[in-house]
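Handout, page 2. Input:
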Amino acid sequence: MIKNRLIQLIYRSVFLTISMFGIIESFGLFYNQTPSLNCFIYYTSLSNFLCFGVMLTVCISTYKHIMNGNNIGNNTCITKLKFYSTIIILVTFIVYNFILADLMFEPGWNSLGNLTKHIICPLLFVLDFFLFDKHHSLKWYDPLLCPVLPLLYVIFILIRGAVLPSDYKGTIYPYFFLDVNKLGYGGVFLWVGILVVAFIAIAYLLFLYDKIYIKDKKIYFSLKEIK
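Output:
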């Protein structure tokens, strides 16, 4: 892990700059785009908004440490929420690249926005977790909490789809695996179950990484602090 907080600050500032571009593109504010608030129905956009807010908070904390002369150390600010956000954005990366990859080649700003929100920012955020966060603090149940926010998103989309008028012309279900009209509630719940299992499995892999530590230039693995 890298403990130099100046390096952390620079890295996080770069992330925030790139992430801000993705957010602006999400609202359709670039030339030849149509401004819209539709981004709020997309898991991708919401997960990127979440990571931007989390990283901004951590970046401010890093800056304060440096201003106070604490130039060496790893991030201890909102580490639990940052862990949950890491899993959430990592799933964004996986689903997009392995399930929704055909959307990668949309024209214009959309293509660059997709690249930013689905690949660059997720990878940068996950790498920040590995390089700069203080570890060994996660509990055994933390991976089980990672799907909570995504499940709230699913509930929101299903309720929204149920109350929209039948003649609504916009996007009702932003992803095929949430499309009740095509899959039925049984099919949607099956897909959601699969994704929840994927969330938890990925979270436990990072949880195991959290239990690795280096001492005297040797790598050790310990589950002693699981409570």
